[in-house]
Structure to design on (415 residues):
């Protein structure tokens, strides 16, 4: 593992430029909102086990609906962004996000898990659109040499949202859980509030004037600063680092989805916590994601992003082994640490996969977003094992982190 020295160029690469600052702040805030939505789904997973009498395997359909939407919406979102631009892509994502939240009202009235699945799928389509658009949008708001830092910084606010999601969900959904209750009023009211806030954000963003972008993914003035195509004769699929980024993202979100989905179950079954207490610990769990994002952004000034990615992947392999042993607090602390090491994985894989793709960049963003479908399928496998022993289920993500290690160690290289 080598230390990283930024390349010497004619001028130092700025984090972003003043003309992009307002847009950058607004787009960065969006990372927080979809962080809230995704982690609140993990609280819903546990809540639905109670009020709708679901098994752990059945409740994994919550993750399947959201992350499955990423797979379905990835390419359409990318095409929409390419045709209508970044701003309209954001507005489409926010509109779908709000529509999915409001559909919780008829789903709660019917007390139907199928209807909730439809609402979560539409909400997930909104989240997928936002992620597909926001990553290349943030990368375009400045020099490519600092795009890793910008994306990791923006993802730090996604981690803040990941803290708020379980905190809000635990307070409104788990705090007053009564054994045998089938009341879904709290779910309905919570998602009405979410839909209203997201609608206001969409209306506000409609009035934000986005400066004309000289997209660094298309610019060709400085091969270090701009995302010029390193091999113009190749099709997108022939760029090996991009293909490996899609694979790595699949396994990354697979591990993340399974780990988050059964965190509360682990706290309840292995540590003896109540559901509400386990939900409160999930706030700390997501806090580790925030700490890791800021720490990762800082460390990337000295350690090459792919090297740091490989180190963090090895860290999580060790954490999974400790968790699976059911050592009590040492295992629970290892479970909390998983999110510290997960922290940089999604944005770093995304950023490395977009390097030197030139005109292919927006299409590549769609495919890397589609890799998130790993989070739709992997919780089923972990749920099946968790029916017998939730600790043993944490052996399964080891394969995922090994694949991420390979990407960070070798296969990130642009050829």
């Amino acid at each position: 593992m080598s230390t990283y020295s930024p390349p010497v160029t004619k001028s130092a690469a700025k984090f972003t430029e003043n003309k992009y600052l307002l847009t950058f702040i607004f787009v960065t805030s969006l990372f927080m909102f979809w962080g809230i939505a995704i982690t609140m789904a993990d609280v819903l997973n546990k809540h639905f086990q109670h009020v709708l009498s679901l098994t752990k395997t059945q409740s994994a359909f919550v993750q399947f609906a959201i992350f499955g939407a990423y797979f379905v919406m990835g390419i359409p979102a990318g095409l929409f962004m390419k045709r209508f631009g970044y701003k309209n892509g954001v507005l489409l994502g926010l509109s779908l996000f709000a529509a999915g939240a409001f559909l919780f009202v008829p789903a709660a009235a019917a007390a139907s898990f199928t209807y909730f699945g439809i609402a979560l799928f539409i909400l997930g389509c909104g989240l997928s659109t936002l992620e597909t658009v926001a990553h290349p949008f943030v990368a375009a708001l400045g020099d490519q040499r600092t795009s890793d830092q910008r994306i990791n910084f923006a993802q730090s606010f996604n981690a803040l949202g990941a803290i708020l999601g379980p905190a809000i969900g635990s307070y409104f959904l788990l705090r007053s859980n009564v054994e045998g209750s089938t009341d879904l009023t709290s779910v309905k009211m919570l998602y009405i509030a979410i839909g209203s806030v997201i609608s206001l954000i969409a209306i506000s963003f409609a009035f934000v004037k986005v400066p004309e972008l000289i997209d660094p993914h298309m610019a060709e003035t400085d091969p270090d600063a701009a995302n010029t195509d390193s091999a113009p004769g190749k099709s997108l699929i022939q760029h090996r680092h991009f293909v490996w980024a899609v694979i790595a993202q699949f396994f990354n979100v697979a591990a993340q989805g399974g780990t988050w989905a059964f965190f509360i179950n682990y706290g309840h079954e292995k540590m003896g916590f109540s559901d509400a207490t386990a939900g409160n610990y999930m706030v700390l769990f997501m806090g580790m994601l925030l700490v890791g994002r800021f720490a990762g952004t800082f460390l990337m000034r000295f350690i090459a992003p792919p090297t740091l990615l490989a180190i963090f992947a090895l860290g999580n392999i060790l954490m999974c082994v400790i968790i699976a042993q059911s050592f009590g607090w040492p295992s629970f602390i290892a479970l909390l640490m998983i999110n510290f090491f997960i922290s940089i994985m999604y944005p770093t894989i995304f950023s490395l996969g977009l390097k030197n793709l030139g005109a292919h960049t927006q299409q590549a963003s769609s495919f890397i977003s589609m890799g998130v479908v790993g989070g739709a399928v992997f919780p089923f496998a972990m749920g099946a094992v968790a029916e017998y022993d939730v600790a043993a289920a944490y052996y399964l993500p080891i394969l995922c982190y090994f694949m991420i290690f390979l990407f960070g160690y070798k296969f990130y290289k642009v050829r």
Notes: Residues 61-102 form the longest helix (42 residues). Residues 27 and 134 are 7 Å apart (CA to CA). Confidence is low (pLDDT under 50) at residues 1-9, 216-221. The radius of gyration is 20 Å.
